[in-house]
Amino acid sequence: MGVQAAFVVPHPAVIVPEIGRGQEKKIQKTVDACQEVARRIGEQKPETIVLISPHQVMYANYFHISPGSEAKGNFAKYGAEQIGMEISYDEEFVELLCQVAETKKLPAGIQGEIDPQLDHGTMVPLYFVNQVWKNYRLVRIGLSGLSLMKHYELGQCIKSVAEKLERNIVVIASGDLSHKLKIEGPYGFQKEGPEYDSRVMYVLGKGAFGELLEFPENLCNKAGECGHRALTMMAGTLDRTEIIARHLSYEGPFGIGYGVCEYLARKENPQRNFKEQHEKKERERVASQIRKQDAYVALARRAVEEYTRTGQVIPVPAGLPEELYQQQAGVFVSLKENDSLRGCVGTVQAAENSVAEEIIYNAVSACSRDPRFQPVGPEELDRLTITVDVLGKLEKVNSVEELDEKKYGVIVSKENSQGLLLPDLDGVDSVQEQIGIAKRKAGIKDQEEVELQRFEVIRHF
Questions:
Q1: What's this model's pTM, rounded to 2 decimal places?
Q2: CA distance 328 to 393
Q3: Of 75, 79, 246, 366, which is most buried, counting CB atoms within 10 Å of its CB?
Q4: What is the mean pLDDT of the chain?
């Protein structure tokens, strides 16, 4: 018993015939594949289905698991109110999953429900399943803004619970692929769209789940995918498990990629320990960077490590380059883990007596006080990449023509709201994008006029 099978399915509402009204024939391969998945699930006769949906409530640093005993929903927003469903939740599974996640220090639980109604990312796959098999209880899990590795780890927790309860469990990862495959599509075209879909379907077809952890965040963002974290969590549910992988279909006629895959669990296979393999690679990569880091980054790392291990702020050490003692400047310290942001705190202008002190205090804040993340744990230290940006003088600009997203950082201001974005960031390829992100950080609407300032930085690796 445990996780017997897992499936990757998309969730375009158009494949429900009552909604598509004939349009579903344009993606008939996807419809056929979803029906094949339903038949497979019917053969498995699962007691519990764990469904991972990108359209369940999503938080930046928390995994939401649907609470309660039951839920219902319908397709009213797609003009098919008559098509609905009611499901029963597996409360015992949910309770134990929350406990296991807590022991692993994963932020997951039943708090924070906004809408108890089933989302379409849940209902579209279950529309097909319910035609074949209804004698199951559901566990519905949302995604988060946390790293891919954290999603994989929650998948491992799901596997552990399935085995402890000795239940026949099936996992469904609901998620569309790139939304940017065609100019005429609803989200336009980005070259990263087809690139992402080709790469992810190759990985999924092989069942090479470790490679899911290696997708650059920039590629995923540019491709406009919605399901990569769901795929990664699903992969964790099959950790150390021999599988039979089968690619069922892929198509994208509407400018959105739809992929369907099947994984049947077989015996345990310790060599499919993708978390450990990936962490080993990350430790080796970070160790290589540490050997090359300059005095600025070395100081930030020392401050992070000491505070994380002991809760103590280091004093300014001797033996640093003279400018770290004599100069004053704003400083940003950025932490990344597994290529995902893990913390970033900084000062626009000097708040301390020296750049050295500025680095120390902002490094401590980045690892412990960034409200978007939990404090860094000691077990993460050898996987952290650290950069230090030393800011130059602020300059007021009168037009966007005076900006350059690679050379200058930007500050947008309106009344009491202010947003900042550093220069030369992955995934920010235009001044318009840079300004838009800075506005969103400040809670300023895209169309609102703002005052602009620019600054240069010296980035230390």
A1: 0.88
A2: 11
A3: 366
A4: 95
